[in-house]
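Q: Could you fold this chain for me?
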Amino acid sequence: MPYLTRRPSHRCATWPPGGAGGTPGTRPRTALGIPGYAHPLLAPAEWTALTRPGTPLHWVVLDVADGPGTRPDPHCLEAAGRLRNAGIRVLGHLAVPSGARTFAELISDAHRYLEWYRVDGFLLDGCPTGRAALPEIRRTTAALRTLSDQTHIVLGHGTHPDRSYAEIADQLVTFSGPWSAYRWSQAPEWTAEHPPERFCHFVHGVPRPHLEAALRIARWQGAATIYLTDRTDHGGRVDPWASMPGYWDEIVSRVGTGVSE
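A: Sure. Below is the predicted structure, expressed as structure tokens.
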């Protein structure tokens, strides 16, 4: 049983954030956020599965080559086009660990994503969590929002950041890690001030028998965008998000029908 430091939020909300008011008594729609599959040449089945009718998706991250790459990739162009034609939001992957990329490099990558792949927003992966980095992240998100009228910004902290980050992004990834940690995780009290569609949880190494428990934890902690997989990172040596979980059809069915909602 996870230790929680907040009460579950039952406020009604709409998707996407910032939309019109919802119907009283409704709950936010839980759906999948795809952190970024391997290149379409390496994971063709994964990319094809995303456009199947009825797949409950909030967005899919496109990571061409640890960013947009140096030139348009025809395979990624095709994959992104299929998603857009299916009405699925596509986010470009921007790596922002402290000191790894300059502001100019990040904005340049964002321009390429928009020009080549017509993305709908960005996942800022490796986003810092402390107040000291807040001004620079605020500067970056403000610049990204000037590039498009509908830019959707997700800050990929991987853990709960300073609460002020919620003021500058559409969503925060407040958990990214293994099931062994998630099952005992907690959410700080301030998260109850925001509706569940503001938060994302990515959990790897979830055994099939624990799917129900993982979905329940996401609901208790108020995260409406989730991704659960039985793949593991093998001690940090493997990307657990590169391929779809072995129970993909089951999780699509559970999330799509509102199980554990």
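A (continued): Confidence is low (pLDDT under 50) at residues 1-26.
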